[in-house]
Amino acid sequence: MPMISLHLPRKMLEQIDELVRRGIYPNRSEVIRAAVRDLLYKEAVVAAQMKVEEEENDISLLRGR
């Protein structure tokens, strides 16, 4: 797996460390991977919704509405 460097505000890093300390995630990397995975999923959902809306608009235009 490729490695990247990431700069985060101190407060955000403290919150990440708290999730690790509480045992919710095993380490910082897993917290960040989960956050990125959630973001990518949400963006995919938004993109799919936008596509459906565009298709509905196209159909409405074809029907003359």
Task: Describe the fold and architecture.
With 65 residues, the chain is mostly helical. It has one domain (10-63). It contains two helices and no strands. The relative contact order is 0.07. The mean pLDDT is 93.
Number of domains: 1
Strand content: under 5%
Q: Helical stretch count?
A: 2
Order of helices and strands: HH
Q: Give the low-confidence spans.
A: none
Instruction: Estimate the mean pLDDT confidence.
Output: 93
Distance between the termini: 51 Å
Overall structural class, as computed from helix and strand content, comes to: mainly alpha
> What general outline do the C-alpha atoms trace?
rod-shaped
Count of DSSP strands: 0
Rg result? 20 Å
Helix content: over 70%
- Biggest sheet: strands, sense, closure? none
Overview in brief:
The termini are far apart. The protein is an all-alpha fold. It has helices at residues 10-21, 28-63.
SSE order and pairing:
Elements: H1 10-21, H2 28-63
Summarize this structure as a short list of keywords or feature phrases.
about 60 residues; mainly alpha; 2 helices; about 75% helix; rod-shaped
